[in-house]
Design brief:
Blueprint lengths: L1 E6 L9 H13 L4 E8 L5 H7 L5 E6 L2 H13 L6 H5 L3 H14 L3 E5 L1 H4 L9 E6 L2 H8 L5 H21 L5 E4 L2 H6 L6 E3 L18 E6 L5 H22 L5 E4 L14 E5 L4 H5 L2 E6 L9 H9 L3 E3 L1 H7 L8 E2 L3 H13 L1 H18 L2 H4 L1 H6 L1
Parallel strand pairs: 1-2, 1-4, 2-3, 4-5, 5-6, 6-7, 8-9, 8-11, 9-10, 11-12, 12-13
Helix pairs in contact: 7-8, 10-14, 12-15
Length: 384
Amino acid sequence: MKLLILTSRFPYPLDKGDKLRIYYQVRELSQYFEIILVSITDKIPDKEEYAELAPYCKSIYPIKLGRIRSAANTLWSIVSISKLPAQCAYFYSDIIRNKIGSIISAEAPDHIYCQLLRTSEYIKGLNIPKTMDFMDAFSTGASMRADKGHLIQRWFWKREASLLRKYESSISKEFDNLTIISRLDRDRLKDIENIQVVNNGIDARFFIEEKAEAQYDAVFVGNLGYYPNVRAVGYISEYILPAYEASYKKSLKVNIVGPNSSNVKTWESNHLNIGGWYDNVIDGFCSGRIFLAPLFEGIGQQNKILEAMAIGIPVVTTPDVAKALGMEHGNQLLVANTARSFSDCIHQFLTDKDFTGGMMDRARRFVSLNYEWHAVCQPLIKLI
């Protein structure tokens, strides 16, 4: 059976959540289907990147996205009465639609799997069985940003949230199957029926036997071009570090790991190191004794939490992140929602070795049992 997978980014390198998700899904799906990968991309993959996907695909078609045209499309969607959300307009082009149409005609797939709303406009009206992965509740993410920033930013995100809600509802009718990353995100799209939860998994390489000695008290790992991650770094600097020092009369040292680190350089200090990107991300995780994730505005499933747990690093995060992962405070992780509660959780991990060791063991076992890629992809395979 031929399965055409349409993505809005080439699935390698694994520096963004959507790329990581589809990369591992392609690997699993290739065991059951003949994969035709069509990726809209602003950078044609090099030989090494192409080679990462080639073993799992019959055909690979990267399609160049022109940034000037995309920016113009986005601007037009904002100033006109377009019903297309800006992030969908950015990735849409009639030229690309024609190229995709030609690929579909030539390859004659039995099923089309679209990743994210932003690719769905390309397959409207096609009489081929179709599945779309919402991945996250993007309308909720836009709503969260509508209360932040200056007047124009708030106006833009309020408008985008409204358009996304309408588009999520209307475009879903084009598909035979719909998937999403967590129960929490499915509940946020309560007006859309029959969405199947397909979790992310965890790569076995994170289950290391020994880890290097940490240089910092805590670490945060994430793509620092992603707004909720930027806000998390700001929260650590402006609220958690002062709260810890006020409560315990000592300073914490925190390392910030991830690409696009220039976005958070403003918070660098003697106590907050901006470590940037590590060639081996496991080394980045292992730089801290605790994984600190004050993510109040994120949507979806945070794979960095699973990766930290697999490595054997205790986690402090927010209630919504824990809920999306099906985890409980005091069992697999600690949950906090204020600077004071974050600092108390950090202190408990740093000072109570037995408590910390027991939680690390439970968390690692939970991830191993519930988030193995082969198992989490089975609902998707059955749908297709």
